[in-house]
Amino acid sequence: MGEEPSSLQHASARGLPDGPMPKHVQLREILRELAGDELPHGAAVPSERELALRYGVSRLTVREAIGQLVTEGLLVRVRGKGTFTTRPRIDWQVHLASFTEDMRRRGMHPETVLLDAAEAVPPPATAQALGLAPQQTAFWLFRLRKADGMPMAVERGWYHPDSVPDLLDQDLTASLYTLLSQRYRLQLESGTQTVLADDADAETARLLGIRPGRSLLVFRRISTARGRPVEDMTSWYRGDRYQVTMQLDREPGEP
């Protein structure tokens, strides 16, 4: 028996029907099903010209449907090559948890590459955040985080030396939060996190496997344990792999 035809092969030669649902929305949902259920990650989707002929719509309609799925992270355009399926964005519910824990909870295999580690005098903003004396040194870690082999984030973090003595002698390719808990008996209790957008510089782009200038989500987290600041970490996440969801509640008594 031959292979089961895909949803694209089921397309009517008459094109998409007229009706209350715009044609770009109809095509978007067809492509969503294709990208989510039928094609493997990294597979090419038909060209704009082929989709326009197959569904009897304009290339502008095709471009709009594809553009919406690119924005959602289901498709990615590669200049000179075409459009390809990709993994859906990871929805990050903001909470105080390690990358390793978060990826395992999602059924993905986490991996950490230690790029550099040192004891050095941190920038003034970090010294103030960690409550360090002038010219007091701290531990600095530079790590690449992966999930299922795909680069996801670059982390640069500073750690208070009084809280984590001999940190640089430990295995820094595993979960750092597990290390803090098991070796130093530190449970990170609270933190403040700042989220902003940035463009990838040449080094970060190379590590994440993206083009320089691509959009990144940047998180700066200052975490405390036993009422003292322990960590000042900044992470650069691929903007095409992550989205952030936050719970918003109205304060009691607000109009």
TrEMBL record:
Q: Which residues form the HTH gntR-type domain?
A: 21-88
Q: Which domain of life is it from?
A: Bacteria
Organism per entry: Saccharopolyspora terrae
Which InterPro entries would you find in this protein's record? Answer: Bact_HTH_transcr_reg, Chorismate_lyase_/UTRA_dom_sf, Tscrpt_reg_HTH_GntR, UTRA, WH-like_DNA-bd_sf, WH_DNA-bd_sf
**Region Disordered: which residues?**
1-22
**Name by which UniProt lists this protein:** GntR family transcriptional regulator
Sorted keywords for this record are:
DNA-binding, Transcription, Transcription regulation
Which PROSITE patterns does this entry report, sorted A to Z? HTH_GNTR
Q: What are the recorded GO MF terms, alphabetically?
A: DNA binding; DNA-binding transcription factor activity
